[in-house]
Amino acid sequence: MTAPILFRYFVIAGLINTALFTFLLLTHKRNSTATLLLMALMLLVSFQALLNGFDTRAFFMANPHLSRVSWLQLSLFGPLIYLMVKKLTVPPQRLQWNDAIHAAPFLAYCIILWPWLSQPAAEKRRLLSDFEALSRHDFGWLNQVSLLMLFFYLLLSLRQFRQYRSALENTFSEISRRRQQWLQQFLYAILAVLVISGLGFYGRKWDIPFISWFYHYNYVIVVGMVYWLAYKCLTQPDIFMPGSDGAMVRYRKSGLAATAAPSMYGQLLLHMETAKPYLDPDLTIYTLAEALNMQRHHLSQLINERSGSSFYDFINGYRVEAVKSRLKDPASGHLTILGIAFECGFNSKATFNTTFRKFTGLTPSAYRKADG
């Protein structure tokens, strides 16, 4: 079996699996705008890979109306990436009217490509009969503009990410940190794909040996990235749910009665002491609110107004106290500091060290020595 045939099987499998995965996600009730944008991006990328894998005269003669659809789709990738990053990092998370400006590239491409797209199938087949000559247009000015536009939107996304990262400097949320790590990996993976795609595009345009192979087979990396995105959505869904970290929690006109607040806060403190939910490293304000049978925004308001701290500072305060208690306990002498931290609800060494120093003014090792 030749490499092109294997590649085609691979992209077909990628599209089928992406469609199934998207269907599964759509059955969930709590899909955020960012998740929906990600699903749209994954479907488009998988379909783009399919069109690339079947970039042959026979395929487009049989399906003439699919020719140059890949050109049109390129106008959507950049805006989808940017809007997804924006909705993951900046409230409000719903699409706003001013986001409609990012549909402008797609509308412009529709106008530019309309003379081709509107032609009947017979006329397209006549032109596609000289497939090699027509394929040279794939490397014309429009697709070069597409590459530049993708780089432009990637730069916008990286700028948005850096602003988000700066905003997290004083936020000690495990989900925030995981989201930050995922966004960084995602954006730099996109950058690597764009560089390889650019090399393949110009390698094919100028007939540069070896580099021209990148033009088609970089989609192996792209489809692999789609599988990675699907894996992240399934195993870490919270990172795609804005509002699940302390930096994003907001409440307006919550309707929480002032007379009920003291007893509700007392209920929260009792639950923290008895059930110790902070020992769960994946604890979120949603799961805590559910355990207390409270609305999430009411719980957020209680913590902010009564404790004067964010949700994750509130939770991490309990975790730090638990670590301090364990460090003083001779029964924990055989454990490392990090082992104790993990047992007390932390799941990241960096977050633990930063949080512990914030609450105590000492590093964990310095605290153990001072106590010991």
From TrEMBL:
Keywords: DNA-binding, Membrane, Transcription, Transcription regulation, Transmembrane, Transmembrane helix. The chain crosses the membrane at residues 6-27, 34-54, 66-85, 97-117, 141-161, 182-202, 214-231. Pfam families: HTH_18. The keyword Methyltransferase does not apply. Residues 279-370 form the HTH araC/xylS-type domain. One of its GO terms (molecular function) is DNA-binding transcription factor activity. InterPro entries: Homeodomain-like_sf (IPR009057), HTH_AraC (IPR018060), HTH_AraC-typ_CS (IPR018062), Tscrpt_reg_AraC-type_HTH (IPR020449). This is AraC family transcriptional regulator.
